[in-house]
Amino acid sequence: MADRLPMVDKLWFILPEVALFLGVVVIFIMGLSHSKRVRDMLPMITCLSLAVAFGLTWWVYEGSRGQTLLSVNPNLMLMPMVGKYVKMSACAIGIILAMVSVGSVDRRLEAAVAAGHLPFDPIRANRGEFYAFFLLSLMGVMLTCNANDLIWLFLALELTSLPTYIMVAISRPPRVAQEAAVKYFFLGAMATAIFLYGFALLYGSTGTMILTEMQRAFAAQAKADVVNSFGIIGMILAMLGICFKIAAAPMHFYAADVYEGAAAPVTAFLAFVPKTAGMVAIILLLTTLGWSGHPSTGLPEPIMTTLWMIAVLTMTLGNLGALLQRSVKRILAYSSIAHSGYMLIGVIAGPANNGINAVLFYLLVYGIMNTAAFAVLAALERRGQEIETMEDLAGLRIKHPGMAVVMAIASGSLLGVPPLLGFFAKLYLFIAGIQAGQIVLVVIAGLNTAISAWYYLGLVTLPIMAKPSAQSETIVRSPFPWPRIAGIVTAVAVVVLPLFLGPLIRASQAATTPASLTTGVTISK
Amino acid sequence: MTEAVQLSLGSGWLAAVDAARSVIAGPSWAGWILWLPLISLVLCGVCAALKIHTKLPAWITVGSLAISFVVIVALYMSYRQPMEIPLLDWFNLNWRSNDGQAGSFVAGFAFYVDKLTLLWMLFVTGLGTLIALYASEYMEPDVKRGYARFFAGISVFLFAMSCLVLADNLVMLYLGWEGVGFASYWLIGYYYTRPSAVAAAKKAFIVNRIGDLGLALGIWLIYYNFGTVEYANAQGTGLFQILASGSYKHEAGGWSIQAIPFLLMLGAFGKSAQIPLYVWLPDAMEGPTPVSALIHAATMVTAGVYLLARMLPVMELHPAALPTVAWIGGLTALLAATIGMAQYDIKRIWAYSTVSQLGFMFVGVGVLTTYGAAFHVFTHAFFKAVLFLTGGAVMHGFAGQLDIRKISGLRHMPGWQITAWTMLVGCLCLAGFPLSSGFFSKDEILAQVFAVHRPWLGFMLLFTALLTAYYTFRVWFRVCAGPVSYEMGEEHHGHGDDHHHGKADTGHKAPPRHAPPAHVAHQPHPPRFAINFVLVVITVGAIISTFSGSWVMDKVSHSSAAVLHAADSHEHHPGWVPWLAGTIAVAGIVVAWHFHLASRKSADALRARLLANPLTRWLPTAMENKWYVDEFYEWMIVTPLWIFAHALYLFDRYVIDLLFVDGVARLPKWMGRSFQPLQNGVLQSYAVLMAGGVGLAILLVVVLMPHLRPWLIGFFGGGG
């Protein structure tokens, strides 16, 4: 292939990440400042760098240089345009997540400093670290999209996860959060070991680290009708390990405990950012095997079966787990597990049935509606504590009508009530599944949706229709307006974006098209 | 546009689909027609949220509707040929299934503008603006209560109606169709504390649902058979283009094609209140009068006529479809006129007359004079708006009094001249008095009926015209002429609110709200500027619309509703029809004059005589009770449904709920509980479970897979 110093060419596509990194450096330094005004600017700097990265992504991919690079060097990346879609979604939702997180870290410390009880001590302040790690983790997601070899993919995935361990630990007053962080860290390390082992087997069976070459190697093996079984096992191990990132069975156990332990904004972050990275990684890895050339969806049966089992187990265990919970965060944690299961339907369906773009679209939609739900939790509090249980939400409309409506819209969308955004996302996934002939899987997903209605409808009706409980009477707004604003923005997006389905769907289609996959998709216009 | 393409079907009728042939891109600023009412809706919502108790919502609505009207006029001025104006991508799905078949479902948020569209939009937005202005005064007692809600409803309506009329595809039309239904429900139930208003709103919604089901099925069948829901598009694959080219297999479609016109018809009959779905419209008068004028007389109820006119090429897919429309229209016209004769409530009379006149319009569509139908829609929109608005002025001034037996001599009362005389113009038009606008438009339909040799239908309509003239002038002679006498109504409509003092021109001192209402001296207060201004403007419009025949004809004949039928030319219209119709109108007025002005006693005497005779007793009773149609529906449909529903309820309660639902509902919880021990919060056990899961997966793949292979291929290989 044309040897045009591919690394240099690749650097062009990580300009947005470079911008984020600059933001990280600035934030690290500013977080140590003795001036409260400077420290309070951190979320703004975060949003600003994300906005810059958002613009840069568009420019990098759509500009003439990026187009030329992609056309002269098709082996630059496995699925080049996924980067544009995922990076832009990650930046946009990152901005919202940053808004939700305003005021969650270091609140007591700042209050004590402001009241003069304590001198400001940079060693004890965590805000700088928090926002820096926030950006680093998003950087990891964005780098995942550009991965064209296993090492890059591994590093990008770990760059996504490692900061989140720390974010969980520093998001709340020590005891609860630290337990969650430790669990998260150890189990995460174990999952990493599993997928690293899988990567090693993949390398062993194809003799290359480069994904595009691996794709050719697998194609050659498939042509000779002998796909190396180490390759298959390596792929399964890699997938299972990455299932930790997307909180899919059997690696989902940590989710409920960790999500509950972290502060609401961090939980929202965990539910979107590592999940996106993991989904992209799974899609990239499976693309090397290819969906093409097989009678059904084309993946080898062992992988197909494993994915199928993972999908069914994930959505079922997620929804069943959520039924018994009284804690809103635990419910949303289990719902996050269930949504990963739904998304795997698209992965199984494959690009020929519009499955991959359905997954990408679902990721974006899930990011929006899930953040809306968590924004409500972040925007309200009782005596400085986050609200937790369903009872806290009862009759929210009386005192906090806006947040009650946001919660209802977010839950309705998570359930998939037409005409909210979540409905269309789920519809595209299910259509992809049906087109791929996965009727049984879609029926199971439908049953699961029905089960999930139990708790989602609880989240819709409790804030709107129930009488206020003694607990919910004492709930007040948090002193920071930004989580509220984020909640309202995302809820409006959930209602309004269905009007712009066409462009959104086309964007997700464009993300998967010019890649080396056989897609049956024709792009209109 | 000049080349008319003829489509010949089994019926031998001809339709032109010329306009759809060449479509150009239109100006995108036309989108403001839609966005303005939407903005107005949002602003009204903001006003409600901020508890703004002024007339601000009214001015916002009137302003945005007026601009919207201006945009329409600008679009009209710049119109050269049919236009396609894409606004947003809505549904744009293209796919290729695995066997290589390409499919698509395209329904953009886009306008299709031809002359028919412009005609409809001109009077919809024009009258919308004027009636919103009228409502700004009419609704003022509610400034503290539902003022913003009312104008938000008007904005929703205008948005939805514009969607409906401007849509370039049936899905967007359906959006508007449901939207106007929703707005209508919203506004009929505006006085939501009044049980009758709530019941009327529900009735309207439910009856419309039956029609909407027909429309939805029709649209689906159109997509199923023709693969598109667009009227026309640049690729030439729009519905009208397919019909014009005849490139589909008419016979092959069988029932699924032939059912389309009947399903669309059902939709039209629901929205436009025709037999058997007309019963909601008279009850819809529970809404505020401007709503009755705008939605339930001038604009929304003509949506059915618009649908059938727009879909005229589709309506010819079955030869019996249009005659059915004509007969149903004719029967509705007659039935509603007979009921209207015997009512005492002004708004109800106008409501039945609306049903009756809509019947005339459907006859027009049915006998293929879409021009006549559209002309009648156009003139009717003006004169019926005048009639409703004058009725509303009376209601507003006499505290809700609408009984024609209790108000008399309005034209002699100070300040009521404009109301009385504009009402007279409206009545003349409705009665079809020679040389009035209603005379010309109704004549167009009547003449066509005789021209296509349907004399029975024709004479039935002429008889209906006689009844129309009679009941119309029954109202005018009772209310506006004769000696001055009146009885105030029961409503106090909030004039005691403290925001209202200081307005000297209301002409009376309002009683405090908590005072006992019955015996407080309560004087009628004549309408003020906004109402009078709007009355005069619309009356002038009604008079001008007399001369709009050729203009309307130009609009209709250059649209998809154009009819190229030999009998549609004036040469074939029998010359005696206008003379007879004019005579009949005058005769009806004279009869009304005799019974309701010259000797009012004789009317009561006649009624008493009819009641006294056992042979004729049923006639006035049945007419006053609306031929017992509501009771019949109650007995035939509602009661059996109620019984059925209760049986289902019992079944649901005791069999489904107890046996299945509770059981099934417990199952997931029980299963969840059985998994709960796994989720014990201990790090080590999570790690073991994860490792175990991985181990199981590998075991499955390595050990079990070879044995399960054939089964799995059967399981997964089914698709493709």
Question: What fraction strand of chain B?
Answer: 5-15%
Topology of chain A as a string of helices (H) and strands (E): HHHHHHHHHHHHHHHHHEEHHHHHHEHH
Helix content of chain A: over 70%
Count the DSSP helices of chain B: 26
Counted by DSSP, the helix tally of chain A is 25
* Largest sheet geometry of chain B: 3 strands, mixed
Report the sheet with the most strands of chain A, covering strand number, pairing sense and barrel closure.
Answer: 3 strands, antiparallel
Count of folded domains of chain A:
1
Global shape of chain A: globular
The side-by-side strand order for the widest beta sheet of chain A comes to 2-1-3
Structural class of chain B: mainly alpha
Based on secondary structure, the structural category of chain A is mainly alpha
| Spans where pLDDT lies below 50 across 5 or more residues of chain A | 293-297, 515-525
Strand order of the largest sheet of chain B: 3-4-5
Question: Average pLDDT of chain A, to the nearest integer?
Answer: 87
> Unreliable runs of chain B, pLDDT <50, ≥5 residues?
1-20, 493-521
List keywords for this structure.
heterodimer, A: 525 residues, mainly alpha, 3-stranded antiparallel β-sheet, 3 strands, B: 720 residues, 3-stranded mixed β-sheet, two-stranded antiparallel ribbon, 26 helices, 5% strand, globular
